[in-house]
């Protein structure tokens, strides 16, 4: 047995050594180029990046390119943290990002344009008049213009429904720069991503927003997207759109105007791929292809080619980057494999120790001690993880709390990071309100549904409903968010009602499953005894089943509450990201998880931003902890009085 153990340890050591060895970058020739290139970031560049990806993979079958959108902020977070090879960026680099090693390569140009609904009743007058930078500022920032009549100089009081981006993105920053503002100063209903804002304006006759060219125009026809139309920019502020300013009929015409310099910049802007450190062989080859040969794909996809001088500058930057000794992403595979194998070796030594014991009782005692030690270790580890999270979040939140008092941060109502204003009251209020509203809807429904299924429903219905509940409970939350966008938003808008309904429908299967398990665990003899003394089925259910399972019901509701408070993507898709406490069901709102998800990408660009986002995570963690501690106290008292 000892010989077998030695052989096993030797085999694991060989595996460990093999995993630690790998190919060094630069060994392969260009003709045999292999590897993987990952790109993430701006929606603006995403359609063109997909075209580059497809052609480059055809030219180099040994290279796999993965392109994903998510906003310029997400791309910058990924590249600064070494998670990707390139970030797609649709704005200029911030100084903080340059200091952290970010290097931008110009790969194209496009523009952000204001858009309105194609069925707006004032469409003809709006297209004749156009919109100026001052108009945009009064609509999105100061809110001095709130009706279409105010914009057109008439007495009409039809409200303008303003849409902006919720995610940290280059489009919003570029658009805001057109009228000397920043993204965090833009007001209106905020929705995620370029596709989201295009859909919101398309579905709202009185909506106004802004989009990148790639999303404002149909990629096949080059005409405006169905239901959308460009809102012409009055460049000389004369109150009318001249013939040379009427350049929005087709994507090609607008692209030509941008290339010729006949469109203001901003909102015209450069598009970049951003690297950090020295690109790998595959990543450098992909970038060289984009800078040179890939430019021929720009115009057919509605983008402007970069100039020859920009090509030479990008090539010079790439040569300088390739002279470095650092690599873009460290390969941590060997370290991870080493940790896993180390744990396996440790467990093997522990479990194999009993082999060397001569007596049967000694072996049993040894296994008992090992089992007890392992269980203690994993139990303590779970507590240490929670403590570690809290310590880390507190440490990251200290810079904000050193600048502003805790009371000021928790009760403040303004969220303007560029001005150093971080008020969390709207986000705390939005989180609590949507959680309470959703629980008020789903708890009674799920409770009575579970009672029906366990106490009254025929066996055939249970066989159908139970598997359906399991499927609904297993669905990703983003599916419920999509349902909310497609079904609820056209009817209820981006509002507290939409968010509450989405959360309720998402939580219902979980609560029904938990309640049915609780009710099914009540002994059948108790039901029969109650019925035998003359109680009705409902009296039996109320006085026996519900009373017996009351602690479990309460614990299930607390679990649902925690899930509601922590939900991110489903709520983020329907909340509107309006930073105010919702007082009506029709009000837009903003939750703490949505705040973190939307803005985490830009935290490196504004002082105290990272600390504020970490403080939002700390608030959310503390709220959930307080609710769980309170529930434990209440549950203890319920059980004591039963």
Architecture blueprint of SSEs:
Elements: H1 2-20, E1 35-41, H2 46-59, E2 63-69, H3 72-80, E3 86-89, H4 95-99, E4 102-117, H5 123-129, H6 133-140, H7 148-152, E5 161-165, H8 170-178, E6 189-191, H9 193-202, E7 207-212, H10 213-216, E8 228-230, H11 251-260, E9 268-276, H12 281-291, H13 308-322, H14 333-352, H15 360-403, H16 406-411, E10 415-416, E11 421-422, H17 425-456, H18 459-474, H19 477-492, H20 496-520, H21 524-532, H22 537-548, H23 550-566, H24 569-572, H25 592-599, H26 609-641
Parallel strand pairs: 1-2, 1-3, 5-6, 5-7
Antiparallel strand pairs: 3-9, 4-7, 4-8, 4-9, 10-11
Helix pairs in contact: 1-14, 12-13, 15-26, 17-20, 17-23, 18-20, 19-20, 20-23, 21-22, 23-26, 25-26
Give structural notes:
The chain is α/β, with parallel strands linked by helices and 642 residues long. The chain contains 26 helices and 11 strands. It has helices spanning 2-20, 46-59, 72-80, 95-99, 123-129, 133-140, 148-152, 170-178, 193-202, 213-216, 251-260, 281-291, 308-322, 333-352, 360-403, 406-411, 425-456, 459-474, 477-492, 496-520, 524-532, 537-548, 550-566, 569-572, 592-599, 609-641, and strands at residues 35-41, 63-69, 86-89, 102-117, 161-165, 189-191, 207-212, 228-230, 268-276, 415-416, 421-422. Strands 1, 2, 3, 4, 5, 6, 7, 8 and 9 form a 9-stranded mixed beta sheet that branches. The chain has a two-stranded antiparallel ribbon with strand order 10-11. Helix 8 links the parallel strand 5 and strand 6 (189-191). Mean pLDDT is 84; it is low at 1-30 and 325-331.
């Amino acid at each position: 047995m000892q010989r077998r153990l030695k052989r096993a340890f030797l085999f694991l050591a060989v595996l460990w050594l093999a995993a630690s060895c790998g190919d060094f970058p630069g060994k392969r020739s260009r003709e045999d180029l292999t590897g993987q290139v990952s790109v993430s970031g701006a929606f603006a560049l995403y359609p063109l990046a997909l075209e580059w990806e497809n052609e480059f993979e055809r030219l180099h079958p040994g290279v796999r390119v993965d392109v994903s959108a998510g906003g310029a902020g997400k791309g910058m977070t990924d590249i600064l943290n070494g998670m990707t090879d390139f970030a797609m960026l649709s704005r200029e680099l911030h100084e903080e990002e340059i200091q952290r090693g970010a290097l931008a390569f110009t790969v194209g140009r496009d523009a952000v344009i204001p858009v309105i609904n194609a069925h707006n009743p004032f469409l003809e007058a709006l297209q004749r008049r156009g919109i100026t930078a001052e108009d945009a500022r009064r609509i999105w920032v100061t809110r001095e213009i709130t009706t279409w009549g105010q914009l057109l100089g008439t007495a009409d009081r039809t409200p303008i429904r303003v849409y902006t981006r919720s995610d940290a993105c280059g489009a919003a920053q570029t658009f805001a720069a057109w009228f000397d503002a920043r993204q965090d100063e833009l007001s209106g209903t905020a929705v995620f991503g370029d596709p989201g804002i295009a859909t919101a304006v398309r579905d709202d006759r009185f909506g106004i927003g802004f989009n990148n060219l790639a999303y404002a125009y149909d990629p096949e026809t080059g005409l405006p997207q169905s239901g959308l139309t460009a809102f012409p920019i009055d460049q000389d502020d004369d109150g009318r759109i001249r013939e040379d300013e009427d350049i929005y009929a087709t994507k090609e015409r607008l692209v030509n105007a941008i290339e010729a310099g006949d469109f203001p910049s901003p909102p015209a802007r450069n598009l970049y791929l951003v690297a950090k450190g020295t690109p790998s062989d595959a990543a450098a080859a992909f970038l060289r292809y984009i800078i040179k040969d890939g430019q021929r794909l720009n115009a057919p996809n509605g983008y402007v080619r970069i100039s020859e001088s920009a090509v030479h500058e990008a090539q010079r930057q790439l040569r300088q980057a390739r002279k470095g000794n650092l690599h873009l992403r460290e390969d941590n595979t060997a370290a991870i494999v080493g940790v896993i194998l180390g744990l396996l070796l440790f467990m093997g030594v522990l479990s194999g120790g009993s082999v060397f014991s001569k007596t049967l009782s000694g072996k049993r005692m040894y296994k008992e001690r090992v089992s007890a030690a392992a269980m203690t270790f994993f139990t303590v580890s779970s507590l240490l993880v929670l403590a570690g999270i809290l310590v880390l979040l507190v440490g990251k939140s200290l810079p904000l709390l050193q600048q502003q008092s805790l009371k000021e941060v928790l009760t403040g109502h303004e969220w303007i990071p560029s001005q150093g204003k971080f008020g969390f009251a709207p986000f705390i209020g939005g989180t609590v309100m949507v959680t309470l509203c959703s629980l008020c809807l789903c708890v009674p429904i799920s409770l009575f549904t579970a009672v029906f299924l366990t106490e009254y429903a025929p066996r055939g219905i249970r066989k159908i409903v139970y598997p359906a509940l399991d499927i609904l409970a297993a669905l990703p939350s983003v599916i419920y968010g999509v349902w909310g966008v497609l079904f609820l938003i056209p009817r209820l808008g981006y509002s507290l009602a939409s968010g509450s309904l989405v959360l309720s429908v998402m939580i219902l299967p979980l609560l029904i499953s938990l309640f049915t398990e609780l009710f099914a665990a009540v002994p059948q003899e108790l039901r029969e005894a109650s019925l035998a003394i003359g109680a009705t089925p409902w009296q039996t259910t109320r006085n026996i089943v519900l009373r017996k399972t009351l602690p479990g019901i309460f614990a299930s509701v607390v679990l649902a509450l925690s899930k509601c408070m922590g939900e991110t993507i489903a709520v983020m898709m329907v909340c509107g990201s309006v930073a105010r406490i919702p007082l009506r069901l029709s009000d837009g709102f903003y939750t703490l998880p949505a705040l973190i998800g939307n803005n985490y990408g830009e935290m490196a660009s504004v002082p105290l931003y990272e600390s504020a986002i970490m403080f939002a995570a700390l608030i959310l963690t503390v709220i959930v902890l307080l609710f769980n501690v309170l529930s434990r106290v209440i549950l203890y008292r319920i059980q004591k009085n039963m």
